[in-house]
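Fold this: Response regulator
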Amino acid sequence: MADSKTILIAEDSSVILNLTRKILELQNYNIIAAKNGSEVMKTIEKQDVDGILMDLNIPGKDGMTCTREIRNNPDPKISSIPIIAVTGNANNYSMEDFKKAGINAYLPKPVDFDMLVQTVKQYIS
């Protein structure tokens, strides 16, 4: 089997983070976590990440701001990381907003874990 992929989960809810972590670890993904936008940005500068599950309502820099900064990063390895938005406030955004920010896909909360696995495999495998 190929090396397992590393996913950064940007999520401030420890309950959602832990559930998501367990489900993705069962699929053989390596998981790292960030509780806020600053941690997201520091982590991707220091560590190779194959994909990001980005809560749009994380503290500090929100997920949309982080996504725009990632897409504007001069390092193509960072700027091209697949980003899957996860939000309970999808009604605040249109698909056009997500596309403009550079989000590859989005999952509504509460997260459907079958859809999560399917979406992660589609964009991060």
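Residues 34 and 43 are 8 Å apart (CA to CA). The chain has one domain: 6-124.
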